[in-house]
Every structure is written in C-alpha cells, then in structure tokens.
Amino acid sequence: MHRRSLRLRLLVTFGLGAFLLSSLFAALTYVGVKHVLVNDQQQSDLRQSFVNAALVRSTLYTSPPELANLLNSIQKATASDVLIQTHNQWLSKSSGAATQDVSQEIILAADAGHATEQTLYVNQHSIFVVGVPIPAVETQFFEVFQLGKLERTLTILLQVLGAGAILTSLVGIAGGLWVTRRTVRPLERVSAAAALIAGGELTTRLVTRNTDREVQQLTESFNAMVSQLVERLERDARFASDVSHELRSPLTTLATTATVLSQHRDELSPVAQQSLDLLVADLSVFQSLVEDLLEITRSDAGAAPVLIETVPAIELVRQSVRSGAQHHGLVAPPIEVAPDVGEPLVSVDRRRFERAMTNLIDNAHHYAGGAVAVRISVEGNRLVIDVDDAGPGVPTDERERVFQRFFRGRAAHDRGIARGTGLGLALVHDHVLTFGGTINVDEGPEGGARFEISLPLIEGGDE
Amino acid sequence: MRRLRTLAVVALAALALSGCTLISASSKPTLIGASHVQFGLLGRYIPGTHKGRVRFKTQPIYIVDATGHLAPSSRIVTAPVRLTSVLDQLILGPTKIESFGGYATDLPSNLVILQATITNKVGYIDVSQSLAALGRAKEVLAIGQLVFTAYYAGATSGITISVAGQNEPSLLPNRTFASVVTVKDCEALLEP
Amino acid sequence: MPRILIVEDDDRIRTALRLMFEGEGFVVDDAPTGEVGVALFNRMAADIAIVDIMLPAMTGFETCQALRASSDLPIVIVSARDETADVVLGLESGADDYVTKPFVPEELLARVRAHLRRRPDKSAKAFALGRLHVIPDEGVVRQHDGTELHLTSTEFRLLTDLASANGKILSREDLLERVWGYDYFGDSRLVDVHIRRLRTKIEPDPSNPLYLVTVRGAGYKLVL
Fold it and tell me: Which of A142, B42, C14, C119 is the least buried, fewest Cβ under 10 Å from its Cβ?
C-alpha cells in the first residue's frame, strides 16, 4: 500500500465529510419538509374536493342547470378545474379544464365506485387529481389542482438547502485546512528537526508557538530525548578521549625510561638486550596507537579545532612528506609533479594534512616496503595526490573497508605480527574529509597500491 | 471493509439524492379509503333526505346534419326526464366535435324555453321568439328538431308551439300549418 | 656540560627524564614544583629549562614568567594538552617552544640540543627599525631614549633572521627551520605567536604592522 499524505487525507476527510454530512442533512431536511408540505397540500386539496363534490351533489339534486355556474365559481375561488362525468360521458366541466388531465385509471376507479387521488406530471407541471364517485347523483366527480405554487416553494427550498450544503462543505474544507495545519505542522517540524539531527546538527531543538498540550508534550519530550542522546554521544566521545588522555603520563614515563635503558644497552646481558629491543619496538607501536587514538577521539569529541588555511599545495606536500618520513625515521619517497600543474592552492588544516601524509607513507612502509613515489597532478578543479607503492596492493574487496577504524585486512594477518594500529588509514580518511576532499585506493602503476587523495582547488590566492 | 464502507456511503448518497426531486408523480392512482371520504359522498342516498337521489338518462336530441336532414345526438339529462331539461340541451346545439362534423342546429341559440310541459302525451312548448323569422326552410327544420326531441322525451302525440303564451300554428314540411305537429308530419325531414 | 632545569610534578616522568638527560651528559636540576624550580634556578642558573604546564600551586605559566623575568634562557614547556590556548599562553608567558605528552624522548633531546646550539648571529650588522636600534652582536635592542627592549633569544633570532633576509618573504617553515631548527610545521603556531609578541614590542601600532608584515599565503617579511 503506497504511502499517502496525512495532510491530504485529513483534508479529504474534512472536506468530504463536511460535504457528505451537510448534503445528507440538506437532503433529509428537504425530503422531510417536502413530504410534509406535499402531504398537507394534498390533504387540504382533498378536503376541498370533498366540499366541492358535496356542493355538486346538492346542486345536481336541487337545480342541475346551475352546475356549470357552480363549476366556474369553484374555479374562480380555488383555481382548480372540476369535471363531472356520468354514463361515461362528460356532463360538465369548468371552463378551461382539460379532460386529458384526468387519467384513465382514475376514471375507471371512479366508475368502479372507488375514490382515488393521483399526482401527475403534465405539460411540465405537476397536478393533483382527485376522483370521487357520487353514487347518489350517479356522477363521478373529478377535480384537478395545480401544484405550481408548491413546486416553486420546493424549488426555493432545494436551492437554499443546496447552497447551505455547499457553504458548509466549504467551511468544512477551511476547517480541515486549519486543523491540518495545526496537527500536521508540528509533525512536519519534528521530522525536519529529526532529519537535521540525523544529519549531524546536534544542537537542533524544537521550538513551537503552538500552545496545544499534546504538541507541547511532544516538543518537550523530543527535546529531552535529543539532549539526552547528545549528552550520551558526547560522554562516549569524551570517554575515549579521556582514557587516551590518561595514558599520556604513563606513556611518557615508559618512553623516557626505555630511552634511558637504550642509553645503557651495552651494560646489559644479551638476553636483557633482546628484551629491551622488543620493549622498545612495542613501545613505539603503543605510542603510535595512543597518538592515533588521541587524534581520532579528539576530532570525535570536537576537542581539536580545525584551522583551515589556504596554502600552496606543492610546498605543502613536499614538506609533509619530508617531515612525515623523518618522524618515522624513514627515507622520504620522491615527489613527482605533473608538468601542467602550475601553482595550485588548497584549503586545509596543515597539521592534519601532514598527519595524513605521514600515515600514508608509514602505511606504505609497513605493508609495501615503502612508497615508490608521491605524485601530484591536477584533474579539472581538483588537486590529485597519489601515494604509490610496489607492494602486494589492496585486494578489491577490501578497498572500501580499508579506511574503517581498526580494520585488519588480510595483509595484516599475513604479516604475523600486527604492525599497524588499524587507525592510521581511518585517520587519513577522517582528515581528508574535513578538508572537503576524497580518498580512494586503487591499483598503482607499479603494481602495488595507489592511495589517491583528491582536494578541491582554490581559485586565485585570497583569504 | 473499505469497499463495504464506500458502498454504504454511495448508497446513502443515492438515497438522499433521489428524494431531492420536486413533486414526484405516481404511475397509479392511490385509493382513498371509503372511511376518509367525507360528507357521505359514497353513500347511496343524499344525506339529509329520505332516499333522495339523482339519476341521469341519456336522451336523444335532434340536430341538423350536413345534408340538411334531422339526425339524433344523445345528451345526458337528469331523470326523471323533464321536457324542459331536454329542450335546454337541444338549444345548446351540437358539440364542438359535432359542429366539425357538419352538424348544426336551426334553433336560434338565444331561444329560451319559457315553459315546456307534457299533457296527455302532447308537449306544450312556450318559446321566447317566433320561429317564422328563420325563413321557411329553417323554420321547418327547427320545428322538426323540437318535434322529434320532444317525442323521445315523452311527447309522443306531438307538440304545440306557442310564442310567449300566444299559440302559433307551426309550418309543416308539406307547406301546411298545424297547431299540433307530430313525428309523422316531419318524417320526411329525417335521413332517408 | 650543559645544565638543564626540569620542573615536573609527576615523580616518575621527572625521574625518567633526569636519568635520560644525565645519560646524555647533562647536569640536571629537577624540581617537583614551580617554587622549587625558581629557587633552584636562582641558585644555579641552568642553560635551558623544561617546565610542565600542569603544576600544583605555582602554575607552569607563572613559573615560566618567573624564569623569564631573570634570564633569557630557552624554556620548553611540556603539556598534556595540545589546545592552542594553552600553547599561546605558554609562549606568551615566555616559553620558546612546547612539546605535548607523550613525546618521543629522542625528539625532546634533539630539540633541547637545537635550542642550546642556536646562538644569536653576532656577525649580523646592526640596523634601525623605526625608533629602535637593533644590535645583534650585543644581542640587544635599544629604544630611542636609550633603554633596552627586552626580547627573548628566540624573539631576537626571529627578528635578525627576518632582517638578514633583506625584505625577502620567509615562510613559516623557513622560519621554523632557521629559528627553531625543525622542519615539520604542525607547529606554525610557534611562529605566529612569536611574531605577534614581537609586534607588540617593536611596532608602534601592533594591529597595523609597519615593519613585520604578513604576506598572505606566503609568510612574513621585515620591511626596513
């Protein structure tokens, strides 16, 4: 079942409901009133007929020649036509009376001795015909009443009620619009706020001027829920950050002491020396891990502000690569700049960029025996930096997941010892994203992996 | 469930709309129960009288057809038949339809029957104006109309016409005058 | 043998540092609090000091200020936080450099050595800067009225290096390398804060610099 708009449904319900109800009411009213009016008219006409028939009877009894006059005066008085029949022939009728108005059935019934009445529609008018046999004077009395006036009354009534129904429907629709707005708007606001929050705007809260209790409750509950969730998120982020933070001091001691021991390495026994080497090696891994953790949780907890500056890209890359390599005591890979690159500018946070480059070079060192080259080129309005190696490369099915936190690909397991921290590439990914760039891994020209960073170029030199 | 609901709504709507006609005509007359008929109209006798009733009879009157002969037409008069009422009907002349058919009356329409009685089977008719003014041919036919009409009204031995009380001999078809005109005298006037 | 003052309240770190520097041939004065550190310095002036920001009672910043007030020895502050505010405050208090924990001990060693090695370039010629007179071989800046303007050695080196560039633009990286001796520039804040401090001292209107000019996207230059 496809989803339908609540607004539409409410509106339709209101509009249709109002229309149906008012129409029904109008119809019922009309039918009721019509019934009463018509009945009353017919009753009164019938009574009139009886009176007239009695008059006719007495006239026929006392002075038959006066019949025609009587009929005419009846017509003048009540605007109805009277027709008298005897021996299946028309004896007399008021002037202008049409014998066709009296239907055969009425005549037959009167002949049979039954008084009948019938409403007929003749010449676009309704008429009410009464047939009364007067056996005492061997005649059948028929009277034709015009219902024109009644018809007019009913027409007006119908029009008024109809207009009323339409008006009510319109009011209903208007009401529907108002109710819809009042009920659906808060819902729309909530969903909009929820969408914002899902998108990361965690400071979004609902504000409403609607004073309905339910809406207020919704607003308060929603805001409370968001605040709690945000608090929890922040707490969690802070937790990781706090834990890492706590590790600083012990780590400092460990590193320093290890250095001291290294200073006195010659004084140690071979066993002790070997132990020291292992200690120092793992300590540096531990240090890297804590550094990476600190780095990544800092961004999560929003603790480290991002300082975006517009810098010349090539210079930036050169110096990042150099210091990154030095930081890990590695040889810096050569930097190859494509001929048509020119003097490109990019907007980055320098520290984070340097970190990203360092991690990439380190990664190449760990898994591919070192980066072969760092290549800079320009594609359209983007600067492309490729870190290529000649190692085993990244398997196709891991190329998406390799940037996830603590991801261990097959390469890591193959190596026996877990070399990296699992956070290095995740950090690169997070940082590159902060600059509005993208990072991908593909197959490099030397057969190994190619890590490609793509950054938007800045026009001119400003800021 | 949904279909049932819409069906109910539509039915209700149709019902309501159907009542929204103006006055509805009926195909058959509705019977009025005898108890509802007032003034004892259905009774055999007229209330307030002792077996009072009125009866009608169909009486012939004689009018003139297109060929100039006397021809009968029936009229309804109250029973017992009175010569006056029959003659009144005669004076009224042919109906519209009869007129279209070529029938006419030679009696002047403003003729008034002052008196008409039957004694010993002879009809004594007192009229307001003389028929002699009509001209010989018309006079004969007019008298013939009176004779035959009166015959069937009970004046079997003939009629005597007087004008405002003055006896007047009537012209016969054989050009003679007679004070009492019988149907035999006027036989020739009938359609052969 | 160079003398180093270590002010650090964490016993273990302090001890480890002492061991390390002694192993590298330094004479180490170590103090658990700022007050003791200043007292030690007053008695036996060290050649360089390492001060932890997080100290009880007398804070690291106050300790820096106290040390700076009586000497222009290089001061390296150690912080558990990398907040820019802390860094700026530390540098404003008189420090020449900062390191965050956990640090690579070898790096700290290298930095300390670099600071000790760098001496003002006495061969540089004296020059005038508005109403100021810069005399490198004496290591002083004289004001119009004859009084000396107090600059830290780092600030002085920064000024003279910019001067010796003869109006050429020096990037932050260049300055970091020349003055501090490193070539990784995550710490361009070092340069920026020092430039700002220099401006407050030598510029008539620090917010509208006439001499120490920023070249957007490139670096700084000294206009003579």
Answer: C119
Residues C183 and C92 in one domain: no
Give the residue on C whose Cα is nearest the Cα of A328. Answer: C104
The number of beta carbons lying within 10 Å of the beta carbon of residue C90 is 24
Residue-wise pLDDT tens digits, B151-177: 998 888 888 888 888 888 888 888 888
- Residues of C with Cβ-Cβ distance to A322 under 8 angstroms: 183
Same domain as A283, residue A324? no
The pLDDT tens digits of the residues spanning A209-265 come to 767 788 888 888 888 998 898 888 878 777 777 777 788 888 888 888 888 888 888
Chains with ≥3 Cβ pairs under 8 A against A? B, C
Rounded Cα distance between B91 and B111, Å, is 7
Report in angstroms the alpha-carbon separations of A23 from A16, B2, B14, B22: 10, 22, 11, 17
The whole-model pTM stands at 0.52
- Beta-carbon neighbour count of residue A113 at 10 Å? 11
Residue B101 contacts by C-beta under 8 Å, 6 or more apart in sequence?
B66, B94
Q: Which of C8, C9, C12 to mutate to test the interface with A (most CBs of A within 10 A)?
A: C12
DSSP letter at B181 equals B
Last residue of a domain, one of A155, A170, A192: A155
Residue C42 in contact with residue C71, Cβ under 8 Å? no
Interface membership of A129 toward B (CB under 8 Å): yes
CA distance A138 to A60: 10
Asked if A326 and C183 come within 8 Å (Cβ–Cβ), the reply is: yes
How far is residue A287's CA from residue C43's CA, in Å, rounded to a whole number? 37
Q: Does A378 reside within a domain? A: yes
| At least 3 CB pairs under 8 A between chains A and B | yes
Chain A within 8 Å of C203 (Cβ-Cβ)?
A: no
Buried residues in B164-191 as b, exposed as e (16+ CB within 10 A)? eeeebebbbbeeeeeebbbbebbeebee
Q: Does pLDDT of C7 surpass 90?
A: yes
Of A23, A420, A356, A58, the residue nearest B9 (C-alpha)? A23
What are the structure tokens assigned to A27, written together? 């119809």
Rounded CA gap, A258 and A246, in Å? 19
Contact A256 C16 (CB under 8 A): yes
Cα–Cα distance between C79 and C63 in angstroms, integer?
14
Q: What domain range is A287 assigned to?
A: 227-300
- pLDDT tens digit string along C127-150? 777 777 777 776 677 777 777 777
User: Does one domain contain both A233 and A370?
Assistant: no
Which CATH number covers residue C44?
3.40.50.2300
Neighbouring chains to C with at least 3 Cβ pairs closer than 8 Å: A
Are residues A422 and A448 both part of a single domain?
A: yes
The shortest C-alpha distance from C200 to chain A (Å) reads 24
Task: Return the CATH number at C149.
Answer: 1.10.10.10
The number of distinct structural domains making up chain C is 2
Radius of gyration of chain B (CA): 28
Across the A:C interface, residue pairs with CB atoms under 8 Å apart total 90
Q: Which residue of A has its CA nearest to B59?
A: A87
Range of the domain at C149: 127-222
* Cα–Cα distance, B8 to B2 (Å, whole number): 10
Q: Pick A256's closest partner by Cβ from C83, C105, C184.
A: C105
State the Cα–Cα distance between residues A339 and A281, nearest whole angstrom: 42
